[in-house]
Amino acid sequence: MNRTFGCVRVVWNRTLAARQQRYANQGKITSYAQTDRALTAMKKDLDLAFLNEVSSVPLQQALRHQHRAFCAFAAKRARLPRFKSRSARQSAHYTRSAFAMRSGILRLAKTDGPMRFVWSWPDVDLTALEPTMVVVSREPDGRWYLTFATDGDATQPLPGTGRTVGVDLGIRDFAVSSDGKKTSNPRHLERQARNLARHQRRMARCRNGSANKAKGQSEGRPHASQGSHRARRFPAPAEYAPGP
Length: 244
What we know:
Shape: extended
Oligomer: single chain
Number of strands: 8
Strand content: 15-25%
Low-confidence stretches: 222-244
Order of helices and strands: HHHEEEEEEEEHH
Radius of gyration: 24 Å
Strand order of the largest sheet: 1-4-5
Mean pLDDT: 86
Helix content: 25-40%
Distance between the termini: 11 Å
């Protein structure tokens, strides 16, 4: 799966770089069909032969996601797609042609054995599940997830009450409705500031060079999942390694 994540990242970054270069040089946008032909050329490149070692479906899905991202950007619904980093969240999307789900056992294309996972929905019979898509993801902190997409019946709306309620978002109170109900502000920043001050006081009591000092310094560094990656400047496309 790590190799699959790397191949998805390479395809995404190279395709995005080619899109940007074509638009800068010719002022033309790139269609999905053109990126699909470019992917075929990548697989024939000897330096990118590793792309043939993983399932082609996640690579095709990466092209589709990038195309939809540019459509959303053109419609001013989203920001311009950015390059993927090794330290960010990694994911691979498998459609029905690239996985098999029988009796609760999941097998992905070009894998040696079944995918082991812990089912977190006890009210749903796993053996009766018929997913349309499977997403394998790895968070920056090392946690892994499997996400299943299924076809379901349309949700029936609740009956109307004949009343409308307005909601005002604020700072002192998180939300105040027009009927007088208030939702308190969780004040995450203040809680994190108190935790930081407590951690700094504890570190000040440790001797320089001690094991507790080194351990505390490693625990005090922010993880990428806490937003530290937002301030990081990703390298230019040419600086990405050719391999996954």
